[in-house]
Amino acid sequence: QVQLVESGGGLVQAGGSLRLSCAGSGSIFRIFDMAWYRQAPGKQRELVARLTRSGATNYAESVTGRFTISRDNAKNTVCLQMASLKPEDTGIYYCAVLTEFRTYWGQGTQVTVSS
User: What is the dihedral of CA 39, 40, 43, 47, to 10 degrees?
Assistant: First the structure.
């Protein structure tokens, strides 16, 4: 069973930074692709950033140049460094493990950016 626990969310002013972390069980991070999603109030969950097991990354257009996804296999963690935050970045951020059979989700962490 894959277990993911996010941390690092909070309230920040526009222009500020936050670093989200996701701790996982086992050696999943080096085996599967990892991703961060977010869900804003009243909106569908959307992909923010993805990190493949080979190290390739891709980002939503809205966060490109501001967010960075990274992985520490030794610590079984994946992080999302967020800079130049905007009010529209507000939402619940979810860590995800993307396997060929299903996606595993963390419980989410709230990020609120005030204007």
Answer: -40
Q: Which residue carries 């999943």 as its tokens? A: 28
AA letter at 59:
Y
Separation CA 9–CA 74 (nearest Å): 23
DSSP state of 42: T
Element (H, E) at 5: strand 4-7
Q: Give the C-alpha separation, 37 to 115, whole Å.
A: 22
Q: Is there a contact between 32 and 25 (Cβ–Cβ < 8 Å)?
A: no
Token pair, residue 60, equals 């939503």
For residues 69 and 12, what is the distance between their CA atoms, to the nearest angstrom?
Answer: 19
User: In residues, how long is the chain?
Assistant: 115
pLDDT (tens digit per residue) in 37-96? 999 999 999 999 999 989 999 999 999 999 999 998 888 899 999 999 999 999 999 999
Instruction: Give the pLDDT confidence of 25-47 residue by residue, as tens digits.
Output: 866 777 889 999 999 999 999 99
